[in-house]
Structure formats: C-alpha cells, structure tokens
Specification:
Blueprint: E1 2-3, E2 6-10, H1 16-25, E3 35-39, E4 44-49, E5 55-62, H2 65-74, H3 78-91, E6 99-107, E7 110-119, E8 125-126, H4 127-132, H5 137-152, E9 155-156, E10 165-170, E11 173-178, E12 185-186, H6 193-207, H7 213-226, H8 233-257, E13 266-271, E14 274-279, H9 284-297, E15 311-318, H10 329-332, E16 344-353, H11 357-362, H12 369-382, E17 390-398, E18 401-410
Antiparallel strand pairs: 1-2, 2-6, 3-4, 4-5, 5-7, 6-7, 8-10, 9-12, 10-11, 13-14, 14-17, 15-16, 16-18, 17-18
C-alpha cells in the first residue's frame, strides 16, 4: 500500500487510520511531539502518541551507503526483516513486541529510509535494569525456556543479551518480552549445536556482569531441561563457556577499534591540515584551542623541530569526562558522554614526530607513534588499567603523510606539570 512517499506493509491488527495520518505528515524531520528514546549513527527510536490515545514506537533506519541500498534491493531492509521476525515469533507464540507496520521510502528502486512501527508495552522495563536491582533470577529461567523453544524451531537470535529483552506485567506477574530481533534468522531445521552455543555464549557473557555464577549455571540447566531431548548440562556448560570466552575476545578487539572509526562515541574529521580523532563529548573547537595553546607554549623558533618541548599542560579545556577513567566503558559505549561530562579541566598535550623515511621503508604499513599511543591508551582503559582518559589524537598531514601528531589526554589530579620538565 502506498501512502505518500511510503510503501507500507500492515500487520493484521494495526490502527491503520491513525498510522496513515502519521505517515502522511512524516518526512525527514521527526514529529514535533515525538519523544526520542534512542539515537545513534544508524537509527533513531521515537515514541509517538496517536489520536486514539495509544502510543507506538517508530524505529527509523536511514539507508547508509551503497552497500546497504544494494542489500535492500535484492533482499529485505533491516526494518522489514525485523517486521517479519516479530510476526514469526507471534506464530511460534514466543512473547515479543507487537509489530504494526513496516514502511519504506525509495528513490526509484533504491532504499532511502525504512521504518518499523510497534505497539508500546506499557510499564515495560529492560531486563538488564531489572537484574541490576537484583529482581530477576526467575525471569532468567523463563528466558532460558523461550530460548530453547526458539532454537528447537530453528531460530538463531544472533543478538541475545539482556538489553534486547523487556520485562512486562502479564497476568499480574512480570514476564519476558523480546525486542530488537532484526538479526534473527530462521533455519528449516532445529538449530545446530554450534549456533546454539553462540547465542548462549553471548547471553552468558552479558549476564556475567549482572548476576552471580550460580544463577548463570541455573539458566543453562533450565535451557538443557526445557526441551526434548534433554541436553547434558555439563557438556553444554563447557561449550557455552568456550563460546563466552571467544565472545569476550572478539568484543574486546571490536571496542579497541572504535577509537579509530566513526561511531556513537567517537568522531573523525578534517580541519585544514589536521585529521582529528576525538571523543564525541569533546568539541573540535576545544581540540584546536588546546593545540594552539600547546604551540604557543613551546619555545620560539623551535616549533616542529626535534628540540621543541613535546608535552604541555593546557588548563581550562572544556570537553570530555571528569578526571579518571570511565568506570564501565563497555556499558556506556567507549567514548560516549559520561556522568559529569563535558567537564572543564587540564589537558595534557603530547607531541610526537611522524614516521621518518627509514621507518616507512622498513615498516610501510606501520602506524606512527601518536596512533600507537592513542590505540594503546584505549586498549588499557578497556582492560581496567587506571589512567587518565585519552581525549583526542590530531594528525598533522603534508601531502597525505603524517609529519607529526598530538595526543590529548585528561590530566590526572595531582600530576606533575610536564611543561616544567626538560624537553625530550
């Protein structure tokens, strides 16, 4: 069905009249009365009240780049895939949010934006928040039962963690409700063991920060006993532990790379001869101001020379987190704004030379010293090593080659002023 610029597929019980009015008025800007529930580089989630007083969630997924447009040309968009998956869970009688409609805007055959509308679950809370209040071991056993049913029916979740499960009041008691199932895939047979272990390993890894080991063991036991035939609990636990360890290693490597890629927590941009890698809560104006203060503090006539003072303490820089490392960088998303940010405080600016000709010839694909220090600082932060938070890396380029770089880090309270030390 075509509604304005949107091609719409409806669910059986969708409030078509109210949603049609909403879609006719919906363009690139969000509705004025919409509440932004979540925003990231890839999508926005809005809560909108309809004319009949009910509320719906709109998940807006703009197409990103040519690869995604080609994928939507020969297959389904992310929104359509989730719409189909939610209907599939309904057929299997697995509790999930109710899909209402999927709409797509296209320019010719090319996808411009996809939208998924789901019905609000009144009073629902995220399972991760419930577990942090120590109120959900019974819910985890119910989750294990539903996951066994999904796996036995051939469904591979692929994104199973406590943030993608809601807790709703059903029949006067809390119950599980699935959400964000766009990655789910259905196989025409009972799910193979390896894929089951990958799903359970992902959940096991996430629960390690929320519940004790005994509760996690009970979840695996409930999963093993829920279906027919029953599974060997000891063997299942050993394989899930191995999958959990692989998940931890992959996630750590993924988080380490985020500081050099555009993401929710980091920005990469060009400013004249500079390329800037920075935290999202540190404005680029603050980066450039700190860099200029560093250059002014250097000895006259030695700017850019090997004899120049290479470290400077710049006071009063606005942006970034308060002094000290992020207490839980995985939970907030490394580089994303933290409580107390943006803060104003001292920033240590350290200048590093670019790669010389000999280094380029010996290691043509190697990184310069500033990039190595930037990535190492984030790797240490993710491993819980106490250190000042790295804020930005600035590369000064000439004809595409990095001639020098500047690493900015939040100065730790009581640290010695490096400007007072001898030059390197």
């Amino acid at each position: 069905m075509q509604i304005g610029a949107w091609r719409v597929v409806w669910a059986a019980d969708a409030p078509r009249t109210a949603l049609t009015r909403l879609l006719r008025e919906l363009g690139d800007p969000d509705p004025a009365d919409a509440v932004v529930v979540k925003r990231s580089r890839v999508r926005r989630v809005l809560r909108v009240a309809l004319e009949d007083g009910s509320r719906v969630y709109l998940k807006r997924d703009p197409a990103r780049g040519g690869s995604e447009r080609w994928r939507a040309l020969v297959g389904r968009s992310r929104a359509m895939q989730e719409f189909v998956n939610l209907q599939r869970l309904g057929v299997l009688e697995v509790p999930a949010v109710a899909p209402l409609a999927c709409a797509e805007r296209r320019e010719g055959p090319w996808l411009r934006e996809a939208l998924l509308a789901t019905r609000e679950v009144p009073g629902a809370a995220v399972l991760r928040d419930v577990l942090r209040r120590d109120a959900g071991p019974a819910l985890l056993l119910e989750l294990a039962h539903h996951m066994r049913r999904l796996h036995d029916s051939g469904c591979w979740h692929r994104d199973l963690h406590a943030g993608n499960v809601l807790v709703e009041a059903r029949g006067g008691r809390p119950a599980i409700c699935f959400v964000d199932v766009q990655k789910l895939r259905r196989l025409p047979l009972s799910l193979p063991r390896g894929l089951r272990h990958r799903d359970l390993g992902m959940l096991h890894y996430d629960l390690a920060r929320l519940v004790d080991d005994a509760t996690r063991a009970r979840v695996l036991e409930a999963y093993a006993r829920s279906g027919t035939p029953e599974l060997d609990v000891g063997r299942l636990r050993a394989r899930v532990e191995r999958a959990c360890a692989r998940r931890a290693r992959r996630r750590l490597r993924s988080r380490e790379r985020r500081c050099v890629r555009p993401s929710t927590g980091f920005r990469i941009e060009r400013r004249g001869r500079y390329r800037i890698y920075r935290r999202a809560d540190l404005p680029h104006d603050s980066v450039l101001a700190a860099l200029e203060a560093h250059r002014r503090a250097m000895a006259p006539g030695l700017v850019g020379s090997p004899q120049a003072r290479r470290a400077t303490l710049v006071a009063g820089v606005l942006g970034g987190p308060p002094p000290g490392p992020a207490p839980r960088p995985f939970d907030r998303g490394q580089g994303a704004p933290e409580p107390g940010s943006p803060a104003r405080g001292a920033v240590l600016v350290r200048e590093e030379p670019g790669r010389g000709l000999a280094e380029i010839l010996l290691r043509p694909l190697g990184r310069h010293a500033g990039m190595r220090a930037w990535r190492a600082a984030h790797a240490q932060l993710l491993r819980g090593i106490d250190q000042p938070a790295p804020l930005a890396l600035v590369e000064e380029r000439h004809h595409g080659r990095v001639v020098r770089s500047y690493l900015l880090a939040r100065d730790a309270p009581g640290a010695e002023d490096p400007a007072s030390s001898s030059s390197e």
